[in-house]
Structure prediction request, 164 residues.
Amino acid sequence: MLCEKCGKNNATTHIRTIVNGVVREINLCGYCAAEEGYTSIGHNSLAGMLASMLGDVVTPQIASEEVRCPVCGATFSDIAETGKVGCAECYKTFNRELLPYLKRVHGSTKHSGKIPNRAPLTVKEDSETVDSLKLELNRLVSEERYEEAAIIRDKIRKKEAENE
Ligand SMILES: [Zn+2]
Ligand SMILES: [Zn+2]
Prediction:
């Protein structure tokens, strides 16, 4: 059998993946398999070439062994990732895996706990009124601090535009 990717070399690697619950089987030569990242050695091309030369012993790094919910097809890692259980059957399927998780979230339906408290990103400048900025502008001009004055002047223009 020839490699399904390059069609040149003999397929030495049988890869089975499950994508969205659909089993996909593909036969690749060692080089293509390595190129696709299906190698126990690593992702670099030298390892890939080596694997191809040796006729390779490739261990597909695929989660095909992962248990799936028979109803919705979710894996536990799907659930862990999204924090959502696909269906009622998931509770049965992943009972053992979900148990510590369920205990942890028990009594709390809030999701906000996951979001770290952050300081507001924007600093409010509402305390700066146009009048106070104009005073500041006059002061800076009188001190010949024109660069700073220009910044203040822009602020005043912006504020005046907002107020219109
Ligand atoms: Zn190939
Ligand atoms: Zn399910």
